[in-house]
Amino acid sequence: MRKFKTESKKLLDLMINSIYTNREIFLRELISNASDAVDKLYFRSLTDDSVQINRADLAITIGFDEAARTVTVSDNGIGMSKDDLDKNLGTIAHSDSYEFKAAAKDVPGEQEGLDDQKAVDIIGQFGVGFYSAFMVGKKVRVVSRAYGSDEAWAWESDGIEGYTISEAERAEHGTDVVIYLKDDADEESYGEFATEYGLTDLVKRYSNYVRYPIQMEVTKSRMKPRPADAGDDYVPEFENYTEVETINSMVPIWKRKGAEVSQEEYNEFYKTDFHDFEDPARTITVHAEGTLNYDALLFVPSRAPFDLYTKEYKKGLALYSSNVLIMDKCEELVPDYFNFVRGVVDSADLTLNISRETLQHNGQLRAIARRLEKKVKADLAAMRDDDREAYEKFFEQFGRTLKFGVYTSYGMAKDTLADLLLFYSAKQKKMITLDEYLADAPADQESIFFAAGEGLEHLAKMPIVTTVLAKGYDVLLCTENVDEFCMMALGDYAKKDGDEERAFPLKNVGSEDLGLTTEEEKKEAAEATEENRELFDVMTEALGGRVEKVVVSTRLTDAPVVLTTEGAVSLQMAQMLKNAPGAEEAPKSQVVLEVNPKSPVFDTLKAAHEGGDDAKVKKYTEILFDQALLVEGLPIEDPIAFAQAVTELMK
Fold it and tell me: Which of 66, 57, 91 is nearest to 165 (CA)?
């Protein structure tokens, strides 16, 4: 027995048990090695006239023996000599493919004859992928015959101390890798890999787009011929038979030219690979060449997955390198606010780590992610402008994600997302963008007004909303729990006018100062508040700290009172924070009770106070406060006490 040419026991144990985290990828690694071997032979045929190869004959074959518990991966590539086996398989982490790739860079005309793909698209780099076979195998036997040689050699090892090399027989050039599977244990089943379904599933999942045919003998069913003497009661009979079939697609749809692919083909690929029963709303293709070459095929779904807004949902794009799946969901390729985007990215230029399961340099991913983000943004903007009905359907499904993106990024993503947002216009009675809001605004408008609460009809009837509308200004009605947080994170929205840009603050109509009151009106309200100071002090005391103060309102026309707030925390936001985890530390809203001096109710309050009946003032104040809460769509503290107080007034 020959010893491995390293500190074998430690390093081989590292190869088998530490580098790879998913035992299923052993087949991916062996198929990738087989593809490299075929590539090397085909490249030699392009540079050496004595090598006559028909590319159509090049293939990879998978076989299995369920009874013997073996899996075999074969190729008719360049093969290995006795010395090659000793050097490539006996020296752990030696990569003949890497050396070949480096040497081939200087060969002229290397890109000819491979259907516009690089002639040297070698996958292996580290020389460790082969050893992943020992994750599932208790013994591995490799039989190989080098191209142009009459001799075949067998390398065999149990993956512990060393290996043997002996003479063998093989009809033609190429390599067979035979894995003798480990015995099944209580929590580990290895026999599943020696089955037609198990192998087909792994090929489809990890190696479906290897550019050479991957062939396997599969079982099929067919109807037996009807016997000549069969009667009317004959029941058709079926029989199973086997047939060699190519089980991989080879050419990925994302590398085909856009003009050659129909939307129906894109739709079918999306529904099949991403398990959706509806066609995508948008399809985005990217073919980038430059410092970093890659292809991407992205889809915007028509509907949100059921778990999109749960912790269990995992974003990401499928990441391929040279058509081989590296990661099923690479999270770094899409920002959280585009987490609904599905698709694939394929690049031969990625710097993979030794296991090819993750990347060594995230800078490459960041560069791709930035480009993809711009493409998605541009496509969504085009849908917004060119197909508004489709965009509104999209926004109904994924608008919350965009809003959360503004909020969770603390406004840093607002330049990307703000013009994609839609809100319901109380004035125009439809969903509009912030740009459309400003386009319809009066010339003297200085802010964008919004109201937050539950239900469009309820919000539209609120006194603080109708007052703003009466002044000729629109109000955006926000009914989702994230809306107000999104508006706070936005802060303002800039409208471009030629080379100039003007920022419009976003204001909740429930905030104390909307900037819609003249200085004269403010002065009159302040004087009226001071004149009624004693009355308002009694009312403030009656509410027991639930309001900061009671003042005369400048905004009310019909309603007797309204609740507004000082500071950033509105009534609706305070209510949401109250119901959230850690509510005891949540900030409180600074509530102001505004009284309409033109309402008959105000005259009643004044009369009661001047008549010395402060008990009546307090009771009326509590009723008015609870009424104002109900108008806001908020719960009152003591519904029973409120009902009793109203009943007493009706006696």
Answer: 91
Say which CATH number the domain at 454 has. Answer: 3.40.50.11260
Predicted confidence (pLDDT) per residue in 101-130, tens digit: 555 555 444 433 444 344 445 444 435 678
Mean pLDDT of the chain: 87
Does the pTM surpass 0.85? The reply is no
Q: What is the CATH number of the domain that holds 331?
A: 3.30.230.80
Do 128 and 186 share a domain, yes or no?
A: yes
Identify the CA nearest to 148 among candidates 176, 174, 175, 173.
Answer: 173
- The answer for residues whose C-beta is within 8 angstroms of residue 561's C-beta and 6 or more apart is 553, 593, 594, 595, 596, 601, 624, 625, 627, 628
Where residue 138 falls (left for φ over 0; alpha for ψ -120 to 50; beta otherwise) is alpha
Q: What share of the chain is helix, strand, coil (3-state, %, to 5)?
A: 40, 20, 40
**Which residues of the chain fall short of a pLDDT of 50?**
7-8, 95, 97-98, 100, 107-120, 122-126, 354-355
Please provide the distance, in angstroms rounded to a whole number, between the alpha carbons at the two ends of the chain. 107
Q: Are residues 202 and 299 in the same domain?
A: no
pLDDT at 128: 67
Instruction: Assess if residue 55 is contained within a domain.
Output: yes
